[in-house]
Amino acid sequence: MRALCWTGVNELSVENVPDPGLLNRQDAVVKVTASSTCGSDLHLLDGYVPTMMAGDVLGHEFVGEVVETGPDVRERRVGERVTVCSIIGCGRCHYCKEGLWSLCDNSNPNPGFLETSNGHAGAAIFGYSHALGGFAGSHAEYVRVPYADVNAFPVPENVPDASAVFASDAVPTGWMGADLGEVGPGDVVAVWGCGGVGQMATLASLRMGADRVIAIDRFPERLAMAAEMGADVLDYGDVDVLEALKELTGGRGPDVCIEAVGMESHGTGAQYAYDRVKHALRLQTDRGLSLRQAIHACRKGGVVSVLGVYLGVVDKFPMGAVMNKGLTLRGAQQHGHRYIPMILDRMSKGEIDASPLLTHPMRLEDGSRGYELFKKKQDGCVRAVFRP
Ligand SMILES: NC(=O)c1ccc[n+]([C@@H]2O[C@H](COP(=O)([O-])OP(=O)(O)OC[C@H]3O[C@@H](n4cnc5c(N)ncnc54)[C@H](O)[C@@H]3O)[C@@H](O)[C@H]2O)c1
Ligand SMILES: [Zn+2]
Ligand SMILES: [Zn+2]
């Protein structure tokens, strides 16, 4: 079959790879009908995530049709259209049973790297390096889905692929961000980053009753998309974000700060130059500009909810602010399984429509071009989605 492979830093190529088959009794094989780019893929493309190997198939946000099931698959059926969660859970360990699916103890067969770097390893993720399981990703004609009964969710007939595909990753991630922040009526929420994840965190915060959401980015079309949903917006190229947030909240600061940027945070001025140099020299694994800002801006006693992906160590991490302001700092890879059934149901009722994120439908053959547009945020690209 054809698949979009990572072949080196900033190098992708469509290659012929072996068709996946059933390896375990609880596996299914899914024929992919739509597979999206995600900000997390950029960290792989840019070479910041170790344990990638030339030939690894990328992609973790996808929808498709079940074409084969193992003998222990009880719920899913051949012919069903399914959204598959980007995070692979086993459904049976302590963490999966607690709803903390991205902390699954069983799905990652290569836990050693993360055990060494973080103390413990979490769940595997499709197409996300060998440290996170070494599973082939979804930018391909077919993908093997382990523990299919718990990781594949049937899509209601009236929900198009263009929306259902994002129920795999961007929508549940955004939802989790608001949920971890315990967003509720009366809250002011600030969201750093207006990519697919930030947009969905904005949507979720508004749906959970936030009084006001302030979305921060520098790309006009992304800010316009957040404004369209009802957010106030700040262009960090134009304003001093910390000053502006103070002004907008009567000096108090937002109740909940959702960070949806991650380890490749961009910025302005000397601090950004400093962070880039330290990152390039591998003196830090992650750039912390937006994270520092979120912590600095947050009101006393508020919650900083981190959705952006971080790998290891951030330089100049403001621990004093976390401690002295009594902040709650939370984060996780998404516990998607907790939210996906609700999201698909609300998509079916017309209450959630994620399809505006799909700005660039493309053929798999145009994968390199799709990633280039997505990475450079050219041509208004919010997410390029491949239809193998
Ligand atoms: N926790 C999870 O399970 C999970 C799931 C999906 C994605 N992610 C992570 O979420 C992050 C965002 O993903 P995405 O798909 O939306 O990516 P994206 O690249 O489409 O969007 C990131 C946005 O952040 C903006 N940005 C950069 N620096 C900024 C700054 N200093 N202040 C404000 N905005 C800034 C960029 O302009 C861009 O619009 C990534 O780190 C990704 O790895 C995490
Ligand atoms: Zn993702
Ligand atoms: Zn588990």
Automatic annotation (TrEMBL):
KW Repeat (keyword) present: no
InterPro entries: ADH-like_C (IPR013149), ADH-like_N (IPR013154), ADH_Zn_CS (IPR002328), GroES-like_sf (IPR011032), NAD(P)-bd_dom_sf (IPR036291)
Keyword Oxidoreductase: yes
An example Gene Ontology molecular-function term: zinc ion binding
One matching Pfam family: ADH_N
Swiss-Prot/TrEMBL cofactor(s): Zn(2+)
Stretches assigned to the Alcohol dehydrogenase-like N-terminal domain: 26-151
Keyword annotations from UniProtKB, A to Z: Metal-binding, Oxidoreductase, Zinc
Residues of the Alcohol dehydrogenase-like C-terminal domain: 196-264
Domain of life: Bacteria
PROSITE patterns in UniProt: ADH_ZINC
Gene3D superfamilies in UniProt: Medium-chain alcohol dehydrogenases, catalytic domain, NAD(P)-binding Rossmann-like Domain
Family: Belongs to the zinc-containing alcohol dehydrogenase family.
Protein name as annotated: Glutathione-dependent formaldehyde dehydrogenase
